[in-house]
What does this fold into?
Amino acid sequence: MVKLNINLKDRSYPIYIDTDFNSIGKCIQSAGVNGKIVVVTDSNVDKLYSGKCVDILTASGFEVYKYVFEAGEKSKNLNTIKEIYKFLIEMKLDRGSALMALGGGVVGDITGFAAATFLRGISFIQVPTSLLAQADSSVGGKVGVDFEGSKNIIGAFYQPKLIYINVNALATLPERELKSGLAEVIKHGIIADRSFYEYIEQNLNKIIDLDENSLQYVVKTNCMIKGKVVEQDEKESHLRAILNFGHTIGHAVESVSNFELLHGECVSIGMVGAFKIAEYMGMVDKKVTKRISDTLTLAGLPVKITGLDIEKVYEQMFYDKKIRNSRLTFILPKDIGEVIQIKIDDTELIKKALADLSV
Ligand SMILES: NC(=O)c1ccc[n+]([C@@H]2O[C@H](COP(=O)([O-])OP(=O)(O)OC[C@H]3O[C@@H](n4cnc5c(N)ncnc54)[C@H](O)[C@@H]3O)[C@@H](O)[C@H]2O)c1
Ligand SMILES: [Zn+2]
It folds into this structure.
């Protein structure tokens, strides 16, 4: 088992990275949680892992309940939160109780928001099971739901008491979801760690084949990279914005394509877009753009999209909630392993880069 720590003063917490669920009860106990636990999960993950987790928790002496909602982003709304609150009241949860998110990013975001708000905040445990959640969304404390068509518009910053990751849970993840998660993994290399990026380039097959050691290394490195950024800027007032690399264009593509593409697939396209802009601004050589594009392609991710409506994507970027003063902000690469935040007014340059993303 690998253990990391996220240092956020009184909100600090450990991340355990393991190859099964067996130590989960022990780890929760050592985080000081000893009340009732409600395992919140979705309909897919429920069938695969909730029985095992409930058994281990029960054997560790916890009083355990389970709440299941239908899998998918469409459940990430206030209605699901309301149903969870009702269940928590029915099970008589108190301030010493905890919610455990067992699933992908959707389960983590919903459960974290319910934990942040029920009784003004009860303990929250992350047990991420998708690659996106293990390598990205479970770390950092952003929780929330979608509202009236806007993604993640209601939420909070609420840190878990611990994160427990079983990398072998990825064995059942659909391949397209695994590859989509790889986009965020590659993103972390590009924004902060050149040697990790090179590790991915050289070990892509092992990662896709779910080699246990490679997965542990990848998840550990991602949690460390994201953790370091979050430690320096927990509530995204400056540095944390670098985690949005590839997301200015990516989110817009996601909306314009009516969410037919997965998030990581759009981030992949968005990262190539950011490299193109940087290339046109003379910040990176086109060989570097090609290198990134080749890695993403080898990872099974799209780097272009058929018939992309450039005007629509351009307009959509302005609706992104992170845009202030009507100027587009981009996180652009200076090189692999280093990015900077830049506001850009040059409409033609942005549209030229967007045009490169369309086939
Ligand atoms: N809080 C954050 O910082 C943050 C960061 C990035 C993304 N997000 C959010 O995360 C969500 C996306 O997360 P996601 O990609 O994990 O989506 P998801 O939770 O919908 O999981 C994807 C699919 O995989 C299934 N699944 C999960 N683990 C599985 C396993 N081990 N075996 C088989 N099936 C499994 C799920 O049931 C679902 O069908 C979005 O809502 C996004 O907004 C949050
Ligand atoms: Zn993302």
Summary: The chain has a mean pLDDT of 95. The CA atoms of residues 74 and 266 lie 18 Å apart. Residues 42, 44-45, 48, 71-73, 76, 103-107, 109, 129-130, 132-133, 136-137, 140, 142, 151-152, 169-170, 172-173, 177, 263 surround nicotinamide-adenine-dinucleotide (ligand 1) (CB under 6 Å). The two ends are 45 Å apart (CA to CA).
